[in-house]
Amino acid sequence: QVQLVESGGGLVQAGGSLRLSCAASGRTFSSYAMGWFRQAPGKERELVAAITSGGSTDYRDSVKGRFIISRDNAKNTMYLQMNSLKPEDTAIYYCAAKYGRTSYAPREYIYWGQGTQVTVSS
Fold it and tell me: Nearest Cα to 91, choosing from 39, 44, 20, 21?
């Protein structure tokens, strides 16, 4: 069982930065593949970035070069550094965990946080 708690969301102007954190409970955090998802009103939940237990990363095209995903297994925490934010990045951001490889499919992730709101004003 893993419990995930996101923090770090907020309101920022376009071009600004935010750093999201996902704190995990449990002693097996390092064995999970982790992902950051987002969901805007009226849209489907989509993967933003993912990181394997070994630290390999993957990003959706729209955030490549702007967002950086990382994890600190000693602190049971995952991060998402978001730079050059755009109004279209506005959404609720969720962290999620799964066994095995990372995936773009939300249904494959078994543990979810409650989400944190990110709002980017133009």
Answer: 39
pLDDT, one tens digit per residue, over 45-74 is: 999 999 999 999 999 999 999 999 999 999
Write the single-letter amino acid at 113: G
Q: How far is CA 103 from CA 35, 55, 59, 114, in A?
A: 8, 14, 11, 20
Question: What are the residue ranges in the chain where pLDDT is below 70?
Answer: none
What are the Cα distances from residue 41, in Å, to 33, 38, 44, 45, 90?
26, 10, 8, 10, 9
Backbone angles phi, psi at 56, to 5 degrees: -70, 140
With beta carbons less than 8 A apart as the criterion, state whether 75 and 61 touch: no
Please tell me the predicted confidence (pLDDT) of residue 28: 87
In sequence order, which residues have a C-beta less than 8 Å from that of residue 61 and are 6 or more positions away? none
Give residue 6's pLDDT: 98
Locate 48 and state its tokens: 């933003």
Two structure tokens written together for 99:
């066994």
